[in-house]
Structures are given as C-alpha cells and as structure tokens.
Automatic annotation (TrEMBL), chain B:
This is Phosphonate ABC transporter, permease protein PhnE. SUPFAM superfamilies: MetI-like (SSF161098). Belongs to the binding-protein-dependent transport system permease family. GO terms for cellular component: plasma membrane. It comes from Lysinibacillus halotolerans. One of its GO terms (molecular function) is ABC-type phosphonate transporter activity. The gene is phnE.
Length: 278, 265
C-alpha cells in the first residue's frame, strides 16, 4: 500500500544547539490510528507540527499525499494544510466567537474572504457542522461563546472544527493533556469513533501509555528526537515503556496522576525552546 | 544554623546602600531644580491667600446671561473630539496591525511604522496645534488635524500592544487549517481584539474632549477660544461659567463611556 505520509530523515534544530528532531524516518498508511508517545521535551510536538509546517524543519523530506510539504509556500501550502486537520492541547478556539462559527473555521480555506465575513458558508458545511456538534453532544451549546465552555467541551469543538475540513489526515497534539480524567476519556473516545467513521488517518501525541494501548493500531515512541519504538500495541512491553520514561515515570499514567503530569507539562524547562509556543 | 543568624534574618537580599544612594540622588535633583529656578515654597504659601481672594472676587458670581451663546462652541468641541477619534481609530488600527509581531512578520516594516507612530505620539498636541496654525491659519481644521495626529500615535501603540497580547495559540489553529492571512486577521485577531479596541478608543475620546478645549487656546477653534477671549477681556464671570459647563461635559462623557464599557467589554 502506498503511504499517505512519508517522513524522511527529518531534523529540526532550534537556535544553534537544541536538536529537537534527530533524523526521523517514518511512513504512515491510510486508516492507521497512530499514537506517538514519549516524555515531554522528546520532540513529539515538533514532529507533529513539522508535518503541516507550523514548524519549519531544518532538514529532511515530508511527502504528504504526493506533495513535498517542505518545499511548499503561500497558496499551495495553505491548500495542502486544508487537507490536514489539527487538534491542539489548548484547544485554540477563538474565545469570543460562538461555537458554530468556530467549527465553520474549518472551512475558511475553501471560501473567499468576503463570503466568510458575511457568514456565507455553504449550506452542506453548516449542516455538517450542526451534525458534528450533535454527535459530540454539544447541540445545546451551538450559539454559546467558545470561552463559556468547559475544557472538555472546547476540545470537542476543536475536533468538530478539524473534521469539518474533511481532511485526509488528522493530527492531534496532546489533545487530553489539559483535561481532567473524565473529560479526557470522553474526548479520546469521540476522537477515535469519529476518525474510524470517516476512515481518517490519525496521528496523536500522547504521554499516557494506557490510552495509547487502548486506541492505537500502531504505537511510535520518540525519545530525544529519535524513534525508539515502532510497532503494534501488543509489542509494547512494560520494560520498553520503563526504558523510555526513565527518570520521568510520573508522566506514564493518567489515572490518579493527572495532576502530577499536568504540572510537569507546564514546566517550560522540559520543553525544547519554542516547541509549544508556550 | 547558628544563633546569631536566627536573630538577625534580613527581609531583603538587596543592598540597603543602593536604596540610600537612590534617595539621595532624587532629593538632590529636587533641591537643584528649586535653586536653579529660584522657586520658594514660602512665596507660594504666602501668595496662596491672595490667589484665592483674586479668584473669588473676580470669578464669582458666575455670569449665566450668555449661556445660550456657548452652546455652538460646546457642540463644536465635542464634534472635534468625535471626528478626530473616528478618523484616528481607523488609521491607528492599520498601523497597529503593522506594528504588532502577531500580524506583521516583516521586521523592517514594523520598525518603520513604529518609528513614525512614535514621532506622532511624542510631539505634544499643543505643539502640533501651534505648528499647524502656521500652515492652515486659525480655524477648526487645525484642531481636528492636531488631535488626529496625536491620537493616531497613542492608539496605534495601544492597539499594537493589545494585538500582541492575543495568544498565538488561537491564530495557530487557523494557520494550520489553511486560512489566508486576511481570514486569520478577520476571524482570529479582530474578534479577540474587540474589547481592547472599545476600551482604548473610548479612552482616546475622553482625552480628545479635554484636549479639544486646550487647542482653542492656540487658536484652533472650539470652546477653548471662548475661555481664552473672556479671560483676556477680564470677563471672569463668563469664563468660570464656560469652565463649569465644560467640566460638566467632561463628566457626562466619562459617564457615557463608562456605561458603554460596562455593556460591551
């Protein structure tokens, strides 16, 4: 089968010294639900952001759907980006704009500016936006301002926005790291269900191994900018996990420890410079 | 830990000598200025009663006979403030976008705009007024122009700072889904910017209402002209009435802007 996304020898160096990615080569095939795990600062965020060029890689190739992403710019880059949906740790909704408009932002790249300003989205898009919101249980919040929602609700709006792009590939950067365990569960479940329904290829950054094992069809582990494991969830043994999280054991699990890793996530020291725009 | 340390725990790590030096330097500056300008506090205090006497003898009772004649000048003054705030908010918004790193990635353009805006802002409006009077002669256009220039300077910088504060996260999502620059601007930046935009613009309007009175004194039209002429003609009673009316207008403006703020921000 032809890969949907091919990464070849990807390197990212921040500033002069900080090597976030040390030469990553990976192929991603249609329909896979890939979870990338690894401790904070391992380069997961940089990797996933390099795919849609939110971060410009220093070296290497990113071939998505037959296009060399690293060579694109301007309109062409925007067109390829519109085929890649993205979900963020901090949801990244426009807070003062209402829920349905936030979801419709997923279609901005397909309509001219004046139409988006006048709210003239296609009827099918509006219909699908409402359907998606219904599916994630937010039909009563459609006209609420996004900043009035809870974290879990915001992330579900984020999922709807990404899905409305009708993407070929869905990226999720730590989608549940800022959520309480209950909301995290719901969000992960809905993310998984929807991507299965739409037959989407999904790349999800997580640092909870138990979630990775539950949903992934393939698990990749990154440590110090290198791929240290790539295989089926069943192949991921406890000793491998222990090795990867050496010295950062508190980040492995979610249950009962969500507070701990939440705090650790917020410590900028462990992140590569500029990695998360935090 | 030994006993001495327990008994003597400093609350600051800072060097207390530094603070002492600062205090001495500032105090010397004050003394030097007073000596150089030959200002004596005693003279000020002695002069105070006669000033108060002069004020009450001449400015009271206020003369309200010509109250109706002031109305056009009042409206004129408010008009200046409205027009100048209106025009400058539009131009300042464009400059603000050009100055903020969030919305303008071209560094040279940012620096040039910031420099230009800073010139506008750092020349006091009364000097702009005086300069423009030479160019356009006495009249309303001078007042409006002077206010516009300074307000653009003030608002551009404030707008840019507010745009800078909008977190890049939110714009990142729109960048990631292929939205164009102007779509990110209109759908990501502007909605988040609206509260500060209302706030700064109302603030500028308040400043402009006050400033438009002062402008009259350099001959740039409005209520300031009336105050100035009446004082020059020793019609203190009328002057105090105009001042009182003006203060009421300022208070009303603040009341209105505050209630707008409460409603929208």
């Amino acid at each position: 089968m032809k890969p949907l996304l091919s990464i070849k020898n990807l390197v990212k160096v921040y500033g002069k010294e900080t090597r976030a990615l040390n030469g990553i080569t990976l192929d991603f095939f249609p329909g896979e639900f890939i979870v990338i795990i690894g401790p904070s600062g391992a380069g997961k965020s940089t990797f996933i952001r390099s795919i849609n060029r939110l971060v410009d890689p220093t070296k290497g190739e990113i071939i998505f759907d037959g296009q060399h992403m690293e060579k694109l710019s301007g309109r062409k880059l925007r067109k390829e980006r519109s085929k890649i949906g993205m979900i963020f740790q901090h949801y990244n909704l426009v807070g003062r704009t209402n829920v349905i408009k936030n979801v419709l932002h997923g279609q901005l790249s397909n309509i001219p500016l004046y139409k988006s300003l006048l709210g003239l989205y296609h009827h099918e898009d509006k219909k699908e936006a409402v359907e998606l919101l219904k599916k994630v249980g937010l039909e009563d919040q459609i006209y609420k301002r996004a900043d009035e929602l809870s974290g879990g609700q915001m992330q579900r709006v984020g999922i709807c926005r990404a899905i409305l792009q009708r993407p070929k590939l869905l990226l999720a950067d730590e989608p549940i790291a800022s959520l309480d365990p209950l909301s995290a569960n719901i969000v992960m479940q809905q993310l998984h269900t929807i991507s299965q329904e739409k037959k989407l290829t999904c790349i999800v950054n997580l640092h909870q191994v138990d979630y990775a094992k539950k949903y992934a069809t393939r698990i990749i582990e990154i440590k110090k900018g290198l791929v240290v494991f790539d295989g089926a969830p069943s192949q991921l043994t406890d000793s491998i996990i222990k090795d990867i999280y050496e010295g950062k054991e508190s980040q492995m699990k979610l249950k009962g420890e969500s507070e701990t890793h939440f705090v650790e996530k917020r410590q900028p020291k462990q992140l590569a410079v500029g990695q998360n725009n935090e | 830990m030994n006993k001495q340390l327990i008994h003597n725990i400093p609350l600051n790590q800072r060097d207390s000598k530094k603070i002492f030096v600062f205090v001495v330097v500032f105090f010397t500056l004050l003394i030097l200025s007073l000596v150089y300008l030959k200002i004596s506090f005693i003279e000020m205090l002695v002069g105070l009663p006669s000033f108060v006497m002069f004020f009450f003898e001449n400015f009271f009772p206020p003369s309200v006979e010509n109250l109706q004649q002031y109305i056009p000048a009042m409206v004129e003054t408010l008009g200046y403030a409205v027009i100048s705030t209106y025009i400058s908010t539009i131009i300042a918004f464009i400059f603000g976008i050009l100055i903020s790193e969030n919305t303008n990635k071209i560094k040279s353009l940012r620096v040039i705009t910031r420099g230009f805006v800073s010139i506008l802002r750092n020349i006091p409006f009364i000097i702009w007024g005086a300069l423009l009077v030479y160019i356009f002669g006495i009249g309303g256009i001078v007042g409006v122009l002077a206010l516009i220039l300074v307000t653009i300077g003030f608002l551009s910088k404030s707008y840019a700072e507010s745009i800078d504060e909008i977190s890049g996260d939110k714009l990142e999502a729109l960048r990631a889904n292929g939205s164009s620059y102007f779509q990110i601007l209109f759908h990501g930046v502007i909605p988040q910017f609206v509260p500060s935009w209302i706030n700064w613009t109302l603030f500028a309007f308040e400043i402009n209402v006050r400033a438009s009175a002062v402008l009259g004194i350099v001959g740039a039209g409005g209520i300031g002209v009336l105050i100035d002429t009446n004082i020059n003609l020793f019609k203190y009673g009328e002057a105090i009435t105009i001042i009182a009316v003006f203060v009421i207008i300022i208070l009303l403006t603040e009341f209105v802007t505050n209630s707008i703020r409460k409603r929208f921000v």
